[in-house]
Amino acid sequence: MNAILLIGGGGHCKAAIDVLEATAAWRIAGIVERRDCGISEVMGYKVLGFDEDLCSLRKHYAFALVTCGQIKTPKLRMRLFDALKALNFTLPSVVSPRAHVARSATLGEGTIVMHAAHVGPGVRIGANTIVNTRALIEHDAVVGSHCHVATAAIVNGAATVGDRCLIGSSVVCREGVAIGADCIVGMGTRVLKSLPDSTLFIGAHVT
Ligand code: JB2
């Protein structure tokens, strides 16, 4: 089993630990946090250091995963992803054994597919993206990098989601719609038409 560092020790980290433990493919080495986090462990895994220690931790560990979540902005996850890449960490894609990822689907580095998610045939998902618990990405859909497809969200067949988007919990995206980059689609909404880049979509109200 390879040892892996988890970067960020909050709520999403707990959910990621649950997935990683279920895979039995990884040994969680510990958590890397921000200096003022005030925590020393997460679910029994020690905080081994802070972001400024990543360079020295790299001498001992080759694998890492960004485990901060993403609600309002992808900036933190992107900054941490870039920092890990600059230090030559390998960021694996991680798939829950209780998810289904079709043989012909592709996942970018550092992307996690969580419990009970479904990723259909021909789907392409970029790097550093969260496919959260029970999310459903149907056949031939495309989801960009640094996205969060939240719990129970549905991206129907051949729909596309640009980079750096949040698709909120229980959103339904109609088949074939194109959601641009940097969009936030609010929880529970139905996306029936394509959305341009940088749209904040909260149902009837589009800004
Ligand atoms: O610069 C940082 C940094 N800033 C915040 N470096 C590192 N290494 N860690 C950082 N953090 C840490 O991210 C915080 O100290 C905190 O431990 C964690 C954020 O935890 P929180 O529970 O606030 O949110 P989350 O991002 O893990 O989870 C959100 O997103 C998930 C997708 C929540 O809304 C969850 O409910 C949601 N499932």
Automatic annotation (TrEMBL):
GO molecular-function terms, A-Z: transferase activity
Active site residues according to the UniProt entry: 139 (proton acceptor)
Transmembrane stretches, by residue range?
Answer: none
Q: What are the binding positions for substrate in this chain?
A: 69
Answer yes or no on keyword Transferase: yes
Site (Increases basicity of active site His) found at: 140
Q: Where does acetyl-CoA bind?
A: 148
Q: Which residues form the PglD N-terminal domain?
A: 4-70
Q: Please indicate if the UniProt record lists Ligase as a keyword.
A: no
- Alphabetical UniProt keywords: Transferase
PANTHER family (UniProt xref): ACETYLTRANSFERASE, UDP-N-ACETYLBACILLOSAMINE N-ACETYLTRANSFERASE
Provide the family line: Belongs to the transferase hexapeptide repeat family.
Output this protein's name: Transferase
Tell me which species this is from: Caballeronia calidae
